[in-house]
Amino acid sequence: MRNERVSMGRDAVESMQTHLGREEPAILACYGLIGAILLFGGAGWLTDHYLGTTPWCLLGGLVAGICVGFSLLALMLRR
User: For residue 68, is it within any domain?
Assistant: First the structure.
């Protein structure tokens, strides 16, 4: 098996940078949505673990994460 290095042409690299620069707000908004759901869901799960109220705090955390995530998504996409 040969170990060849693949390189991209200058035009391809510039095109990729242009497209990523244009789509950066949408990418960040998606990461914010996923992060908010994971953060609030994790906090709800930990609260359930310590209080023994399974699954109510987890569900509340997921709903709060979805609400916060979509509000961040809306704010970022309005810009």
Answer: yes
Q: pLDDT 10s per residue in the chain (79 long)?
A: 566 666 778 888 888 888 777 778 778 888 999 999 999 999 999 999 999 998 999 999 999 999 999 998 888 878 7
Cα–Cα distance measured from residue 30 to residue 61, given in angstroms and rounded to the nearest whole number: 18
Domain that holds residue 52: 24-78
**8 — alpha (psi -120 to 50), left (phi > 0) or beta?**
beta
Please check whether residue 3 lies inside any domain of the structure. no
Asked if the structure places residue 15 within a domain, the reply is no
DSSP conformational letter for 6: P
Q: What angle do CA 27, 28, 34 make, to 5 degrees?
A: 95
pTM: 0.72
Looking at the 3D structure of the chain, how many domains does it have?
A: 1
